[in-house]
From TrEMBL:
It comes from Salinarimonas soli. Residues 13-199 form the Metallo-beta-lactamase domain. It comes from the Bacteria. The keyword Hydrolase applies. This is MBL fold metallo-hydrolase. The lineage of its organism: Bacteria, Pseudomonadati, Pseudomonadota, Alphaproteobacteria, Hyphomicrobiales.
């Protein structure tokens, strides 16, 4: 097998990885970099390479993993498209918020094959095992194996310790490509949750909390004491994410449904409620938060961001100007989580995606001989990686 790193390695955004073997070529994820413009916004893959792909498999419906789908189609990709039914259900909203207008319609009408988390998919000499990732409803990890038994685990985005979303154990693999979004951050999720509660308790009244449509709003619904307020357009996506208990930890569904029933609806243009208010998206780049963030800034309403803010986004600008606060709510693994993953999976070679190259280089120094750095555009042979690691 060969791996080609088309985006998201040594950088944040446009996550995309090609796996080739036995005459089969797969692309795992096709995301965008919301902080970039021009070619750097999209995976570093040529039209000829896209035309040679047999299939695109998508881990989940966040923009840095899915929103380049239409761009791929516009650049000669004609292979199969596979994702879970839950990811397919969120495809249109992701594309509407982040894809270029000319790419939205082709991506929205492209035929998609669905699979269930836990299924094993066959592509000639390659098989792809799947499991729940704990990051979002519909989100999965992939382990690719060839006929020799060599294996590559692409984790996608994972949350091993989510109190809400279930994650299937990551299997032993020769090569592990893990979610390094938080670099060496070792602060446990429980402490971050306490910090968020304390922050809101010290600021009673309205507080705007921008969130993505998928994943983090479920975590915040579980974290915050009811009642809270939510944008009215967020209610049905939340209801859908809660409805399928197969994606949730045992017992979480009933509690989340009760909390959602307690939440107050809020609409654009209405006065801000005297409650924590969840509005999508998380960065001010799409959805109602595009209007709500500048309104809150102008009115002096507190704003609390809890996730990644791309450079130049409305959220990042509000934070830089001292008009908002930021406390991370972990929806990716901490560094101790990733160390546990490496211990459990036992790879000969591993690297992380979704973090800058200097950060990955610093992490690699903590596990010499196993952790490595790679560059976008690099192609590596799995057998050679295993020999080097051994």
């Amino acid at each position: 097998m060969r791996l080609t790193f088309h985006g998201g390695f040594g950088e944040k955004g446009r996550t995309s990885l090609a796996v080739a073997g036995g005459g089969v070529r797969l692309l795992l994820d096709a995301g965008i970099d919301t902080a970039a413009t021009g070619p750097a916004r999209y995976p570093a893959i040529t039209p000829a390479e896209l035309a040679g792909l047999d299939a695109l498999l998508v881990t989940h419906a966040h923009e840095d993993h899915l929103a380049a789908l239409g761009w791929c189609l516009a650049n000669r990709f004609r292979g199969r498209i596979l994702m879970t039914p839950e990811t397919l259900a969120e495809r249109e909203s992701c594309l509407a918020a982040y894809a270029e207008p000319r790419h939205r319609a082709p991506a929205a009408r492209a035929p998609v094959e669905t699979f269930q988390a836990g299924e094993t998919l066959a592509f000639g000499d390659l098989t792809v095992e799947t499991g729940r990732s704990g990051h979002a409803v519909g989100g999965v990890w992939f382990r690719v194996r060839d006929v020799s038994g060599a294996s590559v685990l692409y984790c996608g985005d994972t949350v091993p310790r989510s109190p809400v979303l279930a994650m299937d154990p990551l299997p032993p693999s020769d090569v592990v490509l893990f979610d390094a979004s938080y670099g060496d951050d070792a602060v446990p999720a429980e402490r971050r949750a306490g910090d968020i509660r304390a922050h809101l308790a010290a600021r009673p009244g309205p507080c705007l909390l921008p969130v993505p449509l998928l994943g983090r709003p479920v975590e915040l619904l579980r974290l915050l004491d009811p009642p809270i307020a939510i944008h009215r357009l967020l209610r049905e996506p939340l209801r859908a994410q809660i409805a399928d208990g197969a994606w949730l930890r045992e017992g979480a569904g009933a509690d989340l449904a009760w909390r959602l029933d307690m939440a107050h609806d809020w609409s654009d243009g209405e006065p801000f409620p005297g409650l924590p208010l969840l509005v999508h998206d998380a960065m001010g780049l799409g959805g109602p938060s595009q209007e709500a963030i500048p309104r809150a800034v102008a009115a002096g309403v507190p704003i609390l961001f809890t996730g990644h803010l791309p450079t130049g986004s409305p959220g990042a600008l509000a934070l830089e100007r001292g008009r908002a606060d930021w406390i991370r709510l972990p929806t990716h693994p901490t560094w101790p989580d990733n160390l546990e993953t490496l211990d459990a999976c036992g790879p000969a070679w591993a690297t992380g995606h979704s973090c800058p190259a200097p950060v990955m280089a610093a992490l690699a120094r903590q596990r010499p001989g196993v952790l490595r750095t790679v560059r976008v555009g690099e192609t590596l042979d799995v057998a050679a990686l295993v020999r080097v690691g051994a």
